[in-house]
Amino acid sequence: MIWEALGSASLGLALALAATRRFPERLPDRRLVLSTGPVAALVGGLISHIVLGPGHAPANLCVSLGVSAALLSLLLRDAPGRRQWRKDTLRATPAPRTAQPRLRRQAPARPSASYGPR
User: Most CB contacts within 10 A, which of 41, 58, 85, 105?
Assistant: First the structure.
């Protein structure tokens, strides 16, 4: 169990280091990323060890790597240059016209005289 925990933590740390090198402008503070990776991997490894039981070390490591990647992907955000480009292109393109005619709003129905006492 201790070797699985150390393996999970080291895989999570390696994935976090790779993410900080690959996407430095798209991630928040480096300390947050480097702590999220191993902790997520440990939690994923613990959950998979509880579910699968002992003797499934490769599967536990794969699950811990997947959980760590999923939580690190939640920290990603858009690059600053791409966001501005999207806004400019959305403003420049006109809205497409639909082929269906617009329906007019109907006036609310008036209550008839048959309702109520006579």
Answer: 41
